Amino acid sequence: MSKEVAVKIGVKYAKQYKMGYPLIQEKAIMNKQVLSQEGTIMRLIDEKNTFIAKAFYGKQNKGYGWVLTHTEEEKIDQSFFQRKLEAAIHKREKLFADKDTTAFRVFNAEGDGIGGLTIDYFAGYYLINWYSIGIYQFHEYVLTSLNNLVDYKAIYQKKRFDTHGQYIEEDGFVAGQRGEFPIIVKENGENFAVYLNEGAMVGVFLDQREVRRTIRDKYAAGKRVLNTFSYTGAFSVFAAKGGALKTTSVDLANRSLAKTIEQFSINNIDYEAQDIIVEDVFHYFKYAARKKLKFDVVILDPPSFARSKKFTFSAAKDYKNLLKEAITITSDNGVVVASTNCATFNMRKFKEFIETACKESNVTYTIKEEFTLPEDFRTSPSFKEGNYLKVVFFQIARQKGE
Ligand code: SAH
Fold first, then answer.
1. For residue 308, which atom of ligand 1 is closest to its CA?
2. Handedness of CA 241, 247, 253, 256 (dihedral sign)
3. Among 227, 231, 276, 279, residue to substitute to test ligand 1 (most atoms within 8 Å of Cβ)
4. DSSP classification of residue 218
5. Do 123 and 186 contact (CB within 8 A), yes or no?
6. 198 CA distance to ligand 1 centroid (A)?
7. Site residues for ligand 1, CB cut-off 6 Å
8. pLDDT in tens, 160-213
């Protein structure tokens, strides 16, 4: 059993927690001195000592913990975790039954009722991500629940709770039979090589599933496609499968070359007919502009923050300029696929970047598609910033003489 302490919420903040806001902010807590061990259950009470909710103490860059229940009698025990997991699994039944897609999110943190915990499914393997020491205190409950609810080949985990967000688990094996990596998973009929034992990134970002499908089915045929910040080339695979004339993948990381060749190969795409370039994207833009290269589809999916030798990039500050660089090498009537997972600005702001970038580039534009997180990445209606993904496809038209 976890310890329980009464945590007093400031008068300014009580209302938001009564309304269902799930994230415990440091500034909302009046008596921080009662908190010592992460994993402690916090009974949130207001100024009049009235019960508001139960939460757990777990420090993340985002805050001090997450609300678990608004029912005073509800115990935070193994059965609590199992009920949450069972409900989450139930909501993904269609995906579990889908033969063409064998990789998806089973449990999405506060969207499924427990902040700081995500669980992904990869063709019989489960991968647990722990985002705080606090939530990790409940790991036995989560494992027991998985054992009671699902069959699996193996369970792996990543402890992503160091202060720099860089914690790398050596192997992460937890239960079942150790896997041989890569395992090959399917997404809408295409293949991805996935490594659950190699650090934070496993080879594919599952939240872009609908975007990849849309590129393949509606935007790739006969097109020259540039995929920037390409990582393992997941967008390039779907573009090639959709009949792209050629894909060009650009990523700074040395590993991206071999990883991209691997993803093309397991999809029977001749990687020698594609361009895979290990280079700083900002350098590549300059090169492409100088050579007057043009692409019909330009995909932008940068990290929220990145630092390379010559450039630093912050999505909130620099996305507009990134768009302008992309527009310069997009053909007339070409499409820019602009994506960001930066949680510090919303879709409205993101569209303002697009509006301004097009204006300053003397092009008009039409929005063709918009995406936020897919269904399996459930979000809480009381926590809008949890829906971090924003993707906009827009088509540009050059003014005469440009
Ligand atoms: N679009 C990818 C995911 C991108 S992850 C996908 O759908 O799978 C972000 C990638 O950006 C990382 O692979 C990182 O190596 C790369 N990156 C960061 N800064 C970069 C830069 N300045 N130039 C090129 N690539 C960069």
1. 22
2. positive
3. 231
4. I
5. yes
6. 17
7. 205, 208, 229-232, 234-235, 251-253, 256, 280-282, 301, 303, 306, 308, 311
8. 986 555 555 578 999 999 999 999 999 999 999 999 998 889 999 999 999 999
Which of 192, 251, 340 maximizes ligand 1 atoms within 8 Å of its Cβ, making it the mutation to test the pocket?
Answer: 251
Domains and CATH numbers, the chain: 4-69 (2.30.130.10), 78-189 (3.30.750.80), 205-398 (3.40.50.150)
What average pLDDT score do residues 344-363 get?
A: 98
* 195 alpha carbon – ligand 1 mean position (Å): 18
Angle (CA) 206 100 144, round 5°: 60
- Tokens found for residue 335: 């499409």
What does the pLDDT look like over 228-271, one tens digit per residue?
Answer: 999 999 999 999 999 999 999 999 999 999 999 999 999 999 99
Tokens of 126: 């489960």
Q: 315: CA distance to ligand 1 center in Å?
A: 13
CA atoms lying within 13 Å on the CB side of residue 255: 6
d(CA 149, CA 96): 13
Check pLDDT > 80 for residue 402: no
Dist CA 57 CA 43 (whole Å): 10
Count of residues making up the chain: 402
Q: 36: pLDDT confidence band, cut at 50, 70 and 90?
A: very high
- Smallest CA-to-CA distance from 328 within 384, 396, 400 is with 396
Q: Which residue has the tokens 């300014």?
A: 12
The answer to whether 47 touches 18, Cβ cutoff 8 Å, is: no
Residue 311: its pLDDT value, please? 80
